[in-house]
Amino acid sequence: MVINAVIQVTIFSMLVTVISVPLGRYMARVFGRERTWLDPALVPLETIIYRICGVHAGLEQDWIEYSISMLVFSAVGMVLLYGIERLQYYLPLNPQHFGAIAPDLAFNTAASFTTNTNWQAYSGESTMSYFTQMAGLAFHNFVSAATGIAVAIAVIRGFVRRGGQTLGNFWVDLTRATLWVLLPLSILLSLVLIWQGVPQNFSRYVHARTLEGPEQVIAQGPVASQESIKELGTNGGGFFNANSAHPYENPTPLTNLLELIAIFAIGAGLTHTFGHMAGDRRQGWALFAAMGVLFLMGTSWAIWAEQRGNPQFAAMGIDQRATVMQAGGNMEGKEVRNGIVGSALWAVVTTDTSCGAVNAMHDSFTPLGGLVPLLNMQIGEIIFGGVGSGLYGMLVMAVLTVFIAGLMVGRTPEYLGKKIEGREMKLAMLFVLIFPAVILLPVGAAVATKAGLAGISNPGPHGLSQILYAFTSAAANNGSAFAGLNADTPFYNVLLAFVMLFGRFLMKVPVLALAGSLVAKKAVPPSAGTFPTGGATFVVLLVGVIIIVAALTFFPADALGPIVEELVMHAGKLY
Amino acid sequence: MRSWTAIRMTLVLTILTGIAYPVALVGLAHLLFPRQAEGTLVWRNGHVIGSLLIGQNFASARYFHPRPSAAGATGYDAAGSGGSNLGPTNKRLIEAVRSRASALREHEPGIGHGAIPVDMVTASASGLDPEITPAAAEAQVPRVARARGLAESTVRSLVASYTRGRMLGLLGEPRVNVLELNLALDDLASNSSSKAFR
Questions:
Q1: Which residue of chain A has the CA closest to B132?
Q2: Is there a contact between A248 and B53 if contact means CB atoms under 8 Å apart?
Q3: Residue A558 has what DSSP assignment?
Q4: Is A511 inside a domain boundary?
């Protein structure tokens, strides 16, 4: 069924490419405060918001002021969400009368949604009231995504502005990302999802008397409005426990395709926004191409691994071949309508970005199939990436690449005409090194303690994979999981909450400092010795650097988890 | 000053994106797509018997059976969705699949010693997968036909008419909605019996 895979992946890739170009141009206009066709409706609203909040839209901020605004805003939102979770019993729209969330879980969830991670140590349909889902969680889906976009735009300004100190105004970028980009797209996508069957109501859970007699209680809620922003904002927090595998979140092949496109759209568009703002669209296409290559590599690998199936099943006379009658492959933890291609493609897309929504259970993937999402997160989710965070992560890798290229030919490296010097390289390396530190140190702590080991549900090497996946997902602000891990314990709730906060804000601040350091530099005109960063050579080098950095950092840990498990699985060993 | 701006911005955006946006969509949804907005529920004789999108359990020989479910304590818990999350080298997974396979070999005349479609022995991701593959439906045809005293060809053509192909022939996978198919089976029975009385 190679043809089926090629067709579905090609359709998806073409649609993302086609959509990303106009979307990128549109976002460049939005953040350049140029005219757009939504202005007549949104400018009055924008003006009112600035007046209420006391924002002076004309005032720009330097990197320190921009960072502080971003941090204070995130802190306020996190406190508010914690409060809503603890008080939900007394708040409206709680037809199932859910009680207060326990303090450790409420803290974990508040950190999770503030950092755009959407790690979920709870089951939505049995824990959260409709009000908490909407005003608490979906609100963060919007603003954490808008914050990511704002920081990416500020970082782009650092690269492309010629002199000066300022990177823009955080409040303006935040507001415009919400009003001009996220809200209109979410409304459109929600309506299509509802048409396809995603519920949008405030009803009590339905008590159905099934055809054979027993009662089935069917959870309801305002699902569509949350589903659309969850994908567009690369948040990933499911309304229901099963996330986008739940037929109410993702009922048809059309919704699966549209949700996949929504996950990639803004991140892919931002590469073109970058090209536009840099005044050289090839710079944007070069990043897009590097991301595209890595995406296709991961996708082919994951589909191949899952389609091979489980060798133990084959020995029992179970048919895992792909035929016209069935998708075949490893169907444990997958849905029939998504099959192997739709599930493996989703696992790649959701971890190329910081989304973390799942339409299949990654814990039940084959070892090599589950390694792909893990690797995607370990290279830093820079393949289109989290909205905003993907682009600035890729820009840091680009800086690293021109530095390495500069070392090879013995010239001072430059990117977009800006000299990359000691201070920039220190900040870029800080960004690169904080990430593995906040993953591997806590993994070590978890496997060395009783509280950590107690969470494992799949023994053997898979148990290490579960813990490694959890901390990688938290640090990368992804939120997908090897979900068998019992993470709703004080140990994991608190430790993972701190890893999420470090993974988000300890990385955002150095990258803003990098932008602040670059923005003040005068541009040097390109000379014969300038390494062209808009061409194929640069793309190849960039992909190489990304893979080498991740491999050097994470190979030892991955070897003990998924890679060992693959070897023992084929030797027939069970745990 | 800065934190005061942050607090006001948080409140304004909460009202806009956390309340106005979902509430407006609830209104629009009920205006444009009222059936979908309320969860695509199926009514029979004045009460809800389930949702077309939500898998429910069928155990009797007269009905097509859904995929195994790990949702809730006993499966098909539509207020507690989820998969087994058993890893590929977990003994419990292999044991579960083995016991499902031997039960199918015993009770499913369409399978006997033949190959078993993989979706019949593996738990779905949501535990609420409303659909099975055409292969899994075909494997159940002989049992259902026998239990209902129908010709296999009758049941098979019913399955064929309720099989959905890929969207536009390209997207997703071919599938059969179990609840829809079983309702059609029941309708078939009541139509033919009413004919007999006439």
A1: A336
A2: yes
A3: H
A4: yes
DSSP state of B167: B
Which value does ipTM take for this structure? 0.95
Domain annotation covers residue A530: yes
Q: How many CB atoms lie within 10 A of CB A281?
A: 18
> What would you report as the CA-atom Rg of chain B, rounded to the nearest whole angstrom?
22
Q: What percent of chain A has pLDDT over 70?
A: 100
Question: Mean pLDDT over all residues of chain B?
Answer: 94
Find out whether A542 and A397 touch, Cβ atoms under 8 Å: yes
Helix (H, G, I), strand (E, B) or coil at A220: coil
- Cα dihedral sign, A48-A54-A55-A57: positive
Adjacent-strand bridge partners of B50 = B42
Same domain, B26 and B104: no
CA dist A487 and A449 (Å) reads: 14
CA distance A213 to chain B (A): 9
**pLDDT at position A168:** 97
- Kindly report the length of chain B: 198
Q: What amino acid is encoded at A436 in this protein?
A: P
B152 and B115 within one domain: yes
Of B38, B59, B167, the CB nearest to A203: B38
| A181: nearest Cα among A229, A244, A226 | A229
Residue A483 makes CB contacts below 8 A (sequence gap 6+) with A358, A361, A362, A363, B82, B83, B85
Interatomic CA distance for residues A45 and A41, integer angstroms: 7
| Angle, vertex CA B132, rays to CA B126 and CA B133, nearest 5 | 125
Look at residue A172 and tell me if it is in a domain.
no
Euclidean distance between CA atoms B33 and B31, whole angstroms? 6
Q: Which of B13, B84, B113 sits opposite A142 (nearest CB)?
A: B13
Neighbouring residues of A79: CB distance < 8 A, sequence distance ≥ 6 = A110
HSE-up (13 A, CA, CB side) for residue A467: 28
Other CB atoms within 10 A of residue B180 CB: 16
Residue A447's Cβ-count burial label (10 Å; 0-12, 13-18, 19+) is middle
Q: Band of the pLDDT at A550, cuts 50, 70, 90?
A: very high
Task: Look at B9 and A8 and tell me if their CB atoms are within 8 Å.
Answer: no
What is the residue range of A505's domain? 389-570
Query: Looking at the structure, do residues B86 and B133 belong to the same domain, yes or no?
Result: yes
pLDDT at B196: 42
